[in-house]
Amino acid sequence: MANNIEFDTEDKLKYTFYPVTNGVVNFRVRASNDAHLALTSGPVESNPMLEVFIGGWKNTKSVIRKNRAKPDVSEAYIPGILSVGEYRGFWIKWNDDVITVGMEGASAAFLSYKNPEPFPINFVGVCTSYGSSGSWIIQQNEPAPSASIAQVSDAVACFLPTAGEGREGF
To answer: pLDDT tens digit string along 41-97?
Structure first.
């Protein structure tokens, strides 16, 4: 059963934290750009921390950043991924040391990172910034689509459908 949390965020680079317990967070966001999420052990912005920026760089690029430091550990160029006019759905899944980010309805992730220094993720922080405010719906306790990971190198991973899934989008 889903437990929806609905809220708005200002154009302010300050995270508001919510507890997560099951290795996945599904959410929908309506924003022009820069929907930011932080995965942390506690309800504060401190290391260790993984940040997911969706629609950054004027809604052209999404990234995963570790401990608020560049270089980004994963990136994808997807112009127009966010919309100020409609909610867009996404999921973030973490299992052991692998973090994946995907779009609602897609089993394949568009961002992935194998963290060599895993830590317990107990909270997700959210904010919008760089000229954007946002409306959010966090849907907890719903399973994310499964995706198999085939490691290609330290920086790149390919996602393949698991048994029984179609090959939509390939």
So the answer is: 999 999 999 999 999 999 999 999 999 999 999 999 999 999 999 999 999 999 989
Provide the pairing of β-strand 157-160 with 24-31: unpaired
Q: E-assigned strands of the chain?
A: 3-9, 12-19, 24-31, 35-40, 49-55, 61-66, 69-77, 88-95, 98-103, 109-114, 123-128, 134-140, 148-151, 157-160
What is the DSSP secondary structure assignment for residue 11, as one 8-state letter? B
3 state DSSP class of 56? helix
57 SS3 class: helix
> Do residues 128 and 8 lie in contact, with contact meaning Cβ atoms separated by under 8 Å?
no
Q: Rounded to an integer, what is the distance from CA 21 to the centroid of its chain?
A: 15
